[in-house]
Amino acid sequence: MTQPQSDRLDAPLLRLLGVMVLGGVMSYFDATIINVSVETLTARFSTSLGTISWVATGYLLAVAVAIPLAGWSVARFGAKRVWLTALTLFLVGSALCALAWDVSSLIAFRVLQGFAGGLLEPIMLTVVATAAGPGRMGRVMGLISIPITLGPVLGPIIGGLILQNLTWQWIFLVNVPIALLAIVLALVVLKDERPAPGSAPPLDVLGVALLSPGFAALIYALSQAGTAGFGATRVVLGIVLGVLLIVGYVVHARRTAHPLIDLRLFASRGFSSSVVTMFLLGSMLFSLLFLLPLFYQQVRGESVLAAGLLLMPLGLGTMLGMPIAGKLADTFGPRGLVPTGAVLIGLSAVVYTGADPGTSQVLLTAAQLVTGFGLGLVGAPTMGAVYRTVPAEAMGGATGTLFILNQIGASLGVAVVALIVQSGLTDGRTPADAFDGAFWWTVGGAVVVALASLFLPGRPQPAAPAPTDVPAHA
C-alpha cells in the first residue's frame, strides 16, 4: 500500500533538513574540536588543565544561556532572521578565537561562539520538527542525529589534522567557510515568515540571571578544586554562590507564570525521566569526548592526529545506533531501547576503567564502538519521548528545558572529569590511574540512565481509526 504523502520524508523536508543541519552541526562540531588541542593549548598559554577546560565548559554554558533566548527571539523576529544572525555571530566568534592573545580572551571569545551555537541548536530542531510533524518525528530525529552526533566526533579528528599540519588558530578559522556557505543556503531555502505582533512569549530575564550563573559558579569551583583543593576559599565561595543562585531560581520559578525552566513539567514522570536521561547523556558524551583524546596522548603516547582518529569508533557506533533507534522508537517506544543502550555504555566503559599503556587497542576500539552504539540507542528515543510526555501547549518550554539541561550536563561532565584527572595527577598517581577514576563517571551515569528509563513512555498508541473505517452495526 502506498504510504500517505504526509508520512513520507519528501524532497522539501530533506532539503530543509540538510540546510538546517549544515548550520546547526557547526555548534556540535565546535564544542569538541577543542578537546584534541587541550594539551597543545595548555602548553601554549602556560596554564593548568582546570583552567583550559573552561575553553570547553565556557562554550557549553553559553549554549545553555542562549537556548531559552532562541524560542523567544524566533517568536519575536522569525526563524530566518534569528538563524542568519546566529550564523553571523558564530562566524565572528570563530575569527576572534583565532586572534586570542591569552587564555582569558580565548575563553571570552569561546563564550561568544557558544552563545551563537546555543541559538542554532534549538532553532534547527524546532524548524525541522515543525516541518516533519508527529508522524515522521522518530525517523527525522534519527536522521538529524547522525550529523549531530558525527559533528562532535569529527571535531577531534579535524582538530588533530589541523594541529599536525597548521597552527592552533586554524582550529577556529575552519568554521569561517562553513558558516559562509550555511548563510548563503539559508538565504535561498528558508522562508521569511513574520511573526504576529505580540506572539513572543515573555522572557524570564531573572531566571536566566539566576540559573546559568549558578551552574557557572559550581563548575568554576570544580575546575579550581583539582589544583587548590575543596578547602580553598575560591572553591568554597564558588560552591556557596552556585547553590544560593540555583535555590533562588527554584523559589523564583515557583512564583512566576513563565519561568525559564517550568518546574511544573516535572510532575510528569515521563518528562522527568527524559530530562534526567538527556542531562546524563550530555554529561557522558562530552566527558568521553574530552577524556579520550587526552587519554590517548598522555597514557598511550599517541600524536594529536592519532588521538583524533582513534575517536572514530565512538562516532561510527553512534551513527549506527541513532537511525536504528529512531526507527524502532516510532514502533516500540523508548522504554526498551534506552536501558539497552545504557547497559551497553556502562559495560563498555568499564573496559577503560582498567586501561593502561599495555591494553589491547583492539579491545579499546571495540569498547568505543559499543559505547557509541549505546549512546545512539539512548539519544534519539529520549528526544522523541519528550513530545509524548507533555501537552502541545507546553512543547516549547519542554524542548527548551531538555536542551538547557543537556548542555548543563555536558559542561558539568567535562568539569568533573577534568577535576578527577587533575586531582589524580596532583596526588602523584600515574596518568593511567588518574584516567581510570574519571572513566567511572561514565559507568555511574549509565547506571542512573538505566534506572531513569523505567519511567519513560512505552509503545506509542496506534492512531484511532477514521469514522469511515469503523464497521456499522447491523
Account of the protein in words:
This protein is mainly alpha-helical and 474 residues long. The protein is built from 18 helices and no strands. Helix 4 runs antiparallel to helix 5 and helix 4 (54-77) crosses helix 6. The longest helix has 32 residues, at 395-426.
Short description:
The protein is mostly helical and 474 residues long. It is built from 18 helices and no strands.
Q: How much of the polypeptide forms β-strand, as a percent range?
A: under 5%
User: Radius of gyration in whole Å, from Cα?
Assistant: 22 Å
Output the structural class. mainly alpha
The coarse overall form would be globular
Number of DSSP strand runs: 0
Q: Could you give the distance between the termini? A: 29 Å
Q: What is the chain-wise order of helices and strands?
A: HHHHHHHHHHHHHHHHHH
Number of alpha- plus pi-helical segments: 18
What about the largest sheet? none
- Low-confidence parts, pLDDT < 50 over ≥5 residues? 1-5, 463-474
User: Roughly how much helix do the residues carry, as a percent range?
Assistant: over 70%
Q: Estimate the mean pLDDT confidence.
A: 80
